[in-house]
Backbone:
């Protein structure tokens, strides 16, 4: 299945010689791009330099440096905080899996039309209304402090469990809404075409609607994932020894805030690469979706 | 093969199909013509049960498909449909589009489905597009793929709803010649179209819908050359003026 264009670029077939005009154009484009990069680099250095100068020459700088950027204490607290971060990561991953499942279920429940499922729809709607409206921190405190107080013996008593549950409940509501928007954004004619082929309602969702919906909302979902990773730090308010909590303990020990800086940096080291990855994925999807027919 | 008995369909107070009857023997082609809004698409959608008829009956292969308790999926499995707009699935390649229903609905082994789809594509000169996505195809190619997708499940009946109306005039020919080939293969079809020349050429029987009623039906040559009713005469005059005859 070699196309003409392929053979062409392999050389041989055509005798195309780029014109002088084209060479000039390309050279000009190259010059412009070099200039743009240089300008960006120089202006960044200047801005950062000025900022650094202002901060370092401020009267309180020595004091701030001492209590937030203490080199030896930085190294001392690093392993503890990193250990805490490992907990954040595990909570994040497990929560993300549960959110994917619960969020999809709720989204699908909300987009059904069958009258039998009316109660399911109602429950799903009430659920998203409640958990989208409640601040995560309140859900966390409510679950983490409230449910253990019920002393139901068969429930796990770990604060990590309740913290994770709060994350799952809150984020699933967001994710369900994002997914639902995606499902509804798929052109109804796609559903009709699938049904006309004899696909069942479930098969239509599974093979035709969901893949297109997911494609549309992947950037939004990835954004939620980054934000979930950050919010996993909130389980510290329930007393779980995650990165934030570990930093707090270290801080209290020496009355030095450097561990918090460590925690902040570590979180960023996780989220920034993830943001880049999500951007790249979103761009790739964008490329595939310049579709000539309405979807 | 297909029998529509006094089919009636209303949307609110708008009577879209009024006592429409149609008999389609096996291996024959019925073409439905009529002005925009006369109910052509609605008739086709009733036949594959995407719309529920208010009154009357539709028989497919002797069985009443409008009877209470008939599963629409089972009926649609035996009817291929191509819509006015291209309805290819944009997230699937051409071959993916064609093999979806055979694999998922008819449980054909994927390998076999692929082989059969490739054979179809080859026959109609689209083999090099098998792995392309719909957005990389021309309108005519998209619509031909949509037709191949509809026949890949070997339906008893093929419904084509103005499959050329969204196309550039230059692309119409390639789609129509595909339909002609299918006719020669003996595929039973109901076709809604605005292309009178094509209707004349491909129709075994012609049916003229006017505001949801069958005003004239029968032999295409006779109807197109010597219309009996003022409505059809008027319609044909307008089509001629539009260069569609
Ligand atoms: N889902 C619907 N709800 C309400 N009215 C409808 C619906 N579908 C079609 N109609 C109406 O039914 C009538 C017939 O529509 P139909 O699509 O069958 O016409 P058509 O003959 O296919 O026209 P065209 O040549 O423009 O495709 C129109 O008046 C239209 O407004
Ligand atoms: Mg129509």
Residues:
């Amino acid at each position: 299945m070699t196309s003409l264009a392929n053979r062409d670029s392999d050389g041989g077939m055509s005798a195309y010689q780029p014109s002088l005009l084209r060479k000039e154009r390309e050279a000009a484009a190259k010059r412009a791009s070099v200039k743009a990069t240089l300008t960006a680099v120089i202006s960044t250095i200047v801005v950062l330099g000025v900022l650094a100068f202002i901060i370092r020459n401020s009267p309180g700088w020595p004091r701030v440096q001492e209590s937030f950027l203490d080199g030896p204490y930085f190294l001392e607290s690093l392993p503890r905080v990193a250990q805490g971060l490992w907990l954040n990561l595990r909570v994040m991953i497990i929560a993300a899996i549960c959110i994917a499942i619960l969020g999809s279920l709720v989204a699908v429940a909300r987009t059904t039309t069958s009258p039998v499922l009316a109660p399911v729809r109602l429950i799903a709607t009430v659920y998203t209304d409640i958990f989208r409206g409640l601040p995560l921190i309140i859900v966390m405190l409510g679950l983490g402090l409230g449910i253990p107080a019920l002393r139901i013996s068969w429930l796990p008593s770990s604060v990590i469990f309740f913290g994770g549950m709060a994350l799952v409940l809150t984020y699933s509501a967001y994710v369900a809404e994002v997914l639902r928007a995606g499902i509804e954004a798929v052109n109804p004619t796609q559903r009709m075409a699938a049904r006309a082929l004899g696909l069942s309602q479930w098969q239509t969702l599974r093979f035709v609607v969901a893949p297109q919906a997911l494609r549309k909302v992947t950037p939004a979902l990835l954004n939620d994932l980054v934000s979930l990773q950050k919010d996993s730090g909130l389980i510290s308010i329930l007393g779980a020894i995650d990165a934030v909590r570990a930093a707090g303990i270290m801080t209290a020990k020496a009355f030095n805030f450097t561990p918090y800086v460590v925690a902040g940096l570590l979180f960023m080291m996780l989220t920034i690469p993830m943001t880049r990855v999500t951007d790249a994925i979103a761009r790739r999807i964008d490329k595939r979706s310049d579709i000539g027919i309405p979807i | 093969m297909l029998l529509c008995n006094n089919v009636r369909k209303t949307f609110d107070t708008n009577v879209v199909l009024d006592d429409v009857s149609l008999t389609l023997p096996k291996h024959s082609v019925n073409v439905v013509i009529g002005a925009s809004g006369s109910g052509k698409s609605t008739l086709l959608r009733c036949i594959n049960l995407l719309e529920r008829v208010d009154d009357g009956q539709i028989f497919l292969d002797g069985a009443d498909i409008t009877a209470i308790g008939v599963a629409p999926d089972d009926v649609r499995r035996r009817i291929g449909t191509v819509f006015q707009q291209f309805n290819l699935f944009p997230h699937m390649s051409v071959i993916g589009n064609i093999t979806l229903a055979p694999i998922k609905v008819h449980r054909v082994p994927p390998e076999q489905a692929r082989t059969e789809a490739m054979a179809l594509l080859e026959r109609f000169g689209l083999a090099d597009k098998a792995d392309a996505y719909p957005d990389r195809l021309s309108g005519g190619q998209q619509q031909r793929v949509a037709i191949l997708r509809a026949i890949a499940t070997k339906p008893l009946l093929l419904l084509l709803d103005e499959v050329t109306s969204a196309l550039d005039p230059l692309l119409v020919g390639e789609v129509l010649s595909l339909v002609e080939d299918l006719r020669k293969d003996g595929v039973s079809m109901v076709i809604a179209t605005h292309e009178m020349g094509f209707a004349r050429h491909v129709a075994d029987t012609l049916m003229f819908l006017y505001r949801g009623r069958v005003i004239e039906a029968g032999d295409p040559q006779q109807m197109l050359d010597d219309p009996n009713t003022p409505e059809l005469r008027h319609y044909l005059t307008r089509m001629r003026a539009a260069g569609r005859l």
Notes: The interface with chain B takes residues 1, 3, 189-190, 192-200, 203, 207-208, 211-212, 215, 288-295 of chain A (CB under 8 Å). The CA atoms of residues 94 and 226 of chain A lie 14 Å apart. Residues 1-11, 289-295 of chain A have pLDDT under 50 and may be disordered.
